[in-house]
Design goal:
about 230 residues, eight-stranded parallel beta barrel, 8 strands, alpha/beta, TIM Barrel, 8 helices
């Protein structure tokens, strides 16, 4: 299982690569679940790193039911991000009833073209029906789903992640992320998870630490996780 590290700055991105990350997801404002980073930051990170860079595209905090104007803003952001050389974008939207906004996904794909990687983010975990959302996403032109199985953490959503993997085509990645702890890795390896996603903060290896501690990646944590997944 390759390792994706969520980062919010250039120093964190460089640290993640040097410590063994296989890919990064770049965003800002992790306290609210992450928002779109500035184009200047995207450009700087892509210039400095050799590993693939995925970028979160989310225009505001809160729910994932967006207005037409908000969706247009995010599509425009995604285009600019891909033009800078990102490997892919991490997106997602829901309808008012909590189902997947498939029209938005089709719009993003149409604008970005077939070569851009598109990952549906953890909006799926707050959808009205995670399994129904998975079935819908399995039919859409995306490359993967980031999820904790509809629960607050990967550990709590492990059974659901297993069912989700079975519902998705082999060509579509299932990326396990959300409160991930190093002790989850062994079980994840048994259910054909494509990637492990984490901020790699100290709490990833020390469950006694408070959830609110600094989310900056820790080189030791990344190296320990890398050893586990290799």
């Amino acid at each position: 299982m390759p390792l994706e590290i969520c980062v919010t700055s250039l120093p964190s991105a460089i640290l993640a690569e040097q410590s063994g990350a296989d890919r990064i997801e770049l965003c800002t404002d992790l306290s609210c679940g992450g928002l779109t980073p500035s184009l200047d930051l995207v450009q700087a990170v892509i210039r400095e790193l050799c590993i693939p860079v995925h970028v979160l595209v989310r225009c505001r905090a809160g729910d994932f039911c967006y207005t037409a104007e908000e969706k247009n803003i995010m599509i425009c952001s995604a285009q600019k991000i891909m033009d800078l050389g990102a490997t892919g974008v991490v997106i997602g939207a829901l309808r008012a009833d909590g189902s997947v906004d498939d029209s938005y996904i089709h719009e993003v794909r149409a604008e970005l073209g077939p070569k851009s990687q598109i990952i549906f983010h953890r909006a799926i975990d707050v959808s009205s029906d995670v399994m129904a959302a998975t079935r819908e996403l399995a039919r859409l032109p995306i490359d993967g789903i980031l999820s904790s199985g509809g629960q607050d953490s990967v550990a709590a959503g492990m059974d659901q992640l297993c069912h989700m993997r079975q519902m998705l085509p082999a060509s579509m990645d299932l990326i396990a992320g959300g409160g991930l702890h190093i002790k989850d890795v062994d079980r994840l390896s048994t259910i054909d998870i494509s990637w492990i996603h984490t901020s790699a903060s100290r709490r990833a290896i020390d469950s006694a630490l408070a959830k609110s501690i600094d989310e900056l990646p820790d080189a030791e944590v990344i190296r320990e996780l890398k050893a586990q997944v290799s």
